[in-house]
Amino acid sequence: MKIIFVHHGEKEKAKEDPNLTPFGRKLARRAAFWIREQGIVPENIASTSTKRTIQTAQAIQKEFHEQKLSIALKNIPDSWSDWLCFGEELFRASPNPWVLVGHHPTIAMFKEEFRLKISLVTFASVIVLKRDKANHWSFIKQKQGALSL
Fold first, then answer.
1. How far apart (Å, rounded) are the C-alpha atoms in residues 93 and 122?
2. Cα(6)–Cα(106) distance, integer angstroms
3. Of the chain's two ends, which shows fewer C-beta atoms within 10 Å, N or C?
4. Cα 15 from Cα 86, distance rounded (Å)
């Protein structure tokens, strides 16, 4: 099972539940394109319920339109112990690749757990994890978001 975690695109300033900026939408499309370039074809998308994560998920959904992906709204955990239970829940729902669109705390959790060299403030960063048969999660690759686009 692969999990592709995407940090939402750049958001508008000073709003309670902001939309993506035009640049943020572009970053979300580029993140989706990068996922496709890696040969990863997701079969599921989950997003938190904020506008910016849903809009990022929709950009990914559009890139993989032939898969007819639906977007499930979920609370994506930002602690490793909660993540292990959440990952198991996703695996039971479908062992096929999932894209999760979330926020800074989840990126920070992955950064700490896998000692990643990734900026915590970079929008549209992508982290790919894999779950093996022994139920262990391992880091596969990452893409720094806005800084490398």
1. 30
2. 10
3. C
4. 29
Nearest to 4 by CA among 82, 111, 98, 77: 98
pLDDT in tens, 33-91: 989 888 988 988 999 999 999 999 999 999 888 888 888 888 888 888 888 888 888 88
**96 vs 2: CA distance, rounded Å:** 7
Buried b (16+ CB within 10 A) or exposed e, 92-122: eeeeebbbbbbeeebbebbbeebebebeeeb
